[in-house]
TrEMBL record:
<comment type="similarity">
    <text>Belongs to the pyrroline-5-carboxylate reductase family.</text>
</comment>
<protein>
    <recommendedName>
        <fullName>NADP-dependent oxidoreductase domain-containing protein 1</fullName>
    </recommendedName>
</protein>
<comment type="function">
    <text>Probable oxidoreductase.</text>
</comment>
<dbReference type="GO" id="GO:0055129">
    <property type="term" value="P:L-proline biosynthetic process"/>
</dbReference>
<keyword id="KW-0560">Oxidoreductase</keyword>
<dbReference type="GO" id="GO:0004735">
    <property type="term" value="F:pyrroline-5-carboxylate reductase activity"/>
</dbReference>
<dbReference type="Pfam" id="PF03807">
    <property type="entry name" value="F420_oxidored"/>
</dbReference>
<dbReference type="InterPro" id="IPR036291">
    <property type="entry name" value="NAD(P)-bd_dom_sf"/>
</dbReference>
<feature type="domain" description="Pyrroline-5-carboxylate reductase catalytic N-terminal">
    <location>
        <begin position="79"/>
        <end position="171"/>
    </location>
</feature>
<dbReference type="InterPro" id="IPR028939">
    <property type="entry name" value="P5C_Rdtase_cat_N"/>
</dbReference>
Length: 361
């Protein structure tokens, strides 16, 4: 029992003057941004893990069909690197460990103070200060550093980035076009959040982030199309996630029809009760929803999708963004899939309100 936990003199608000208390809402907003950021990174990593697992299962099935019965090592496990061991970096590491879950041996942290991360080193996570070494090892690199540190970090790692490395930036002050120049790289995801005027804090104060994301109310507020809790996510992030999945398939020379099938299985495999038993009325993604009509007509069946510039996807209109904006059913199914990945099943009545407005880039 924490005997000091309820002492008023130890609370955050105790030393704040009465005239300054109107600013306390910023504490809840900061917590909401942290929860949303960790939730969306978790969902993204879950998708990539599921995709890589499907590759491994197919390889195993192929070997068994040829009479090879020995265990096949899974070289497709996702390797995640975090640059930055501050508050965000540590919270992200905890969430990825517990909710994806990423095995400790598949998560590494590069920070200027690795000695301050005993909690993670005791779990078997390698913590050190060598950003290029981290990039050489990882598949996905999360940037959790300060804006002032980012130019030097980009200079260190840009020559170590391969085409299929995915950089996921939480550095809100650096726009994605600038990141592209700093890294000389196009496989970059950068979620953009916007705080709305109607602020109602639902994010809680005492639960850690992992526990908060197991609360159905909080989890539903993090849905990509939800404005609950006063924070919205630019829908272009979801487009970036979708085209990232296609790029992973392209890197493995997966024919585009097979890649499209995997994409539908990953994102649209969870249905509501309103879909009926056969799911015939459920949306599915077609080739024309992802690439231009001219390109789709001239794409040979066994050819992979083209390599997509993820920075351009998040800055410009795409066939998918046009399709998504006019398809509430698709938005519904993506919401169901998102919540299901965290173990929460939504009914139609529980579905969060959809916000289709996009924040400016």
């Amino acid at each position: 029992m924490d005997m000091l936990g309820d002492l008023e003199s130890l609370q955050f608000e105790y030393g704040i003057q009465e005239e300054d208390r109107s600013w306390l809402y910023l504490q809840g907003r900061s917590r909401g941004l942290m929860i949303k950021s960790c939730a969306h990174a978790t969902f993204f990593c879950k998708l990539l893990c599921n995709l890589r697992e499907s590759f491994h299962e197919k390889q195993t099935s192929s070997c068994l069909s040829t009479g090879v019965v020995a265990d096949i090592p899974n070289d497709d496990e996702l390797k995640v690197g975090i640059i930055g061991g501050g508050h965000l970096g540590k919270q992200l590491a905890r969430v990825l460990l517990q909710l994806v879950p990423i095995p400790a041996e598949n998560l590494r942290i590069s920070t200027r103070r690795p000695e301050a991360l005993d909690e993670f080193q005791n779990l078997g996570i390698q913590c050190f200060y060598h950003n290029p070494q981290l990039v050489d090892w990882a598949n996905v690199i999360f940037l959790c550093c300060l804006p002032s540190q980012l130019p030097n970090i980009c200079l260190e790692i840009q020559t170590h980035l391969k085409k299929d490395h995915i950089v996921y930036s939480f550095v809100a002050a650096i726009p994605i076009a600038r990141l592209k120049l700093l890294l000389n790289h196009t496989s970059i995801l950068r979620p953009q959040y916007q705080c709305v005027e109607e602020w109602v804090s639902i994010w809680g104060t005492n639960k850690d982030i992992t526990a908060a994301l197991q609360d159905p109310v909080i989890l539903q507020a993090t849905c990509p199309f939800s404005s609950a809790g006063g924070i919205t996510l630019n829908s272009k992030w979801l487009e970036g996630v979708l085209y990232t999945v296609l790029n992973v398939c392209t890197a493995r020379d997966v024919p585009h029809l097979q890649a499209l099938q995997r994409l539908n299985q990953l994102l649209l495999s969870v249905h509501s009760a309103a879909c009926g038993k056969d799911g015939a009325s459920c949306p599915t993604l077609e080739l024309r929803d992802l690439v231009s009509q001219v390109y789709s007509k001239n794409l040979p069946q066994r050819r992979p999708f083209p390599w997509f510039d993820l920075t351009a996807v998040q800055l410009k209109e795409t066939p998918f963004s046009q399709h998504l904006s006019v398809s509430p059913a698709l938005q519904d199914h993506l919401t169901y899939r998102y919540c299901d990945s965290f173990g929460i099943s939504l009914t139609k009545e529980q579905q969060p309100a959809v916000s289709t407005g996009s924040a400016s880039q």
